[in-house]
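Q: Ketose-bisphosphate aldolase, please. Structure only.
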Amino acid sequence: MYTDVKTILDDASRNNYGVLAASAINLELARGLIAAADELQSPLIILMGQMQMTKHARADVMVPLIRTLAEETNVPVALILDHGRDWEVITHAYRNGFSSIMIDASAYELEENIRRTKKVIEMCHPQGVAVEAELGHVGQAALGEQTDDSCYTRPEDVTEFLNQTRADCLAIACGTAHGQYPKGVTPEIRFDIIRVVKKVTDVPIALHGGSGSGDENIKKAVEAGINKVNVCTEIFNYVRDEIRKTLEQTPEIDLLSLMSRTEQAAKEIGKHFICLTGSQGKAANFQRKSAFQYGFAQTETDGGE
Ligand code: 13P
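A: Structure for Ketose-bisphosphate aldolase:
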């Protein structure tokens, strides 16, 4: 069932669990991840990043693919533009049927972040497209930015930011960073920040840079109040390593079988993270609405004009 992140995350926030948000750059990853969600009867969020869209698979190619796969399962699946920074990319995603958009204006000062976020929300909300925004700034693991506490979300800004923007989900910076940490480094997640943010708002909150956090830390982050857990690098690495192992063991494997193995690997690692976030079985909380339940807007008759 193709849906949006607000539908999924409002339930997660109400019922205190997390939902995996994972990158799918091709058919095999999308099928593997959705199969994982289907088997565990869990909601799922598929991420597609701005760079992926500009360099590899455009929205007009990927959205119909994800949407078709999502409609083949009874579990809710949302597709979100991850870290939309440029207006052109955001509008491209919006026009091409993403159910959800992330506007990342976190590199700007609070006021400019609010202005840019509001602009995207004013476009998206009237069309039922859900919007995630970022407050504080989640940096890059390769630059060690997870330890830069000047980037962490200031809980005292949260209420104003959400009152002004009406974002449907808030990504916070609390000690993780995107990408691969140097060997031996595990981020120190500030669970206290998560707890305080959760206290001041009902809006679902997202943890970015989930890779390399360690399984126990992800569970603890969800317990503290995280509802959306973004994981990309660790999933890509797992799938890559499984492809490598398969090629080492069977170098002459035919391509179709290799792609099946790729899909299987995506399913395995997807299941692992779904179990960490605690969303298995939660698909039961969502019911597909009959088209007739939506009804029609009541309009005055206009004589057929
Ligand atoms: P990682 O690649 O570090 O898991 O980050 C994923 C992410 O947060 C995408 O927005």
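A: Brief note, in case it's useful. The domain at 5-285 is CATH 3.20.20.70 (TIM Barrel).
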